[in-house]
């Protein structure tokens, strides 16, 4: 089963990074205020970036790596492979 690492663009311009098995359901949870504490306070605008992995361990490792990036580095990553 695939796992997704995603970056949400929040309405205040910040980013939220997470991983999930079901991207559509997870995005709905974030939108409804039930996804994560961060996205309750920083309302999501859209999914800005997605990567697909074949294992939970690989997805978690990539999520941690992305979370360590600066805001500008995340913006560069999103712009390099935008999913609009």
UniProtKB/TrEMBL annotation:
InterPro entries: GIY-YIG_endonuc, GIY-YIG_endonuc_sf, UPF0213_domain
Gene3D superfamilies cross-referenced by the UniProt entry: GIY-YIG endonuclease
Sequence ranges assigned to domain GIY-YIG in this UniProt record: 1-77
Official protein name in the record: GIY-YIG domain-containing protein
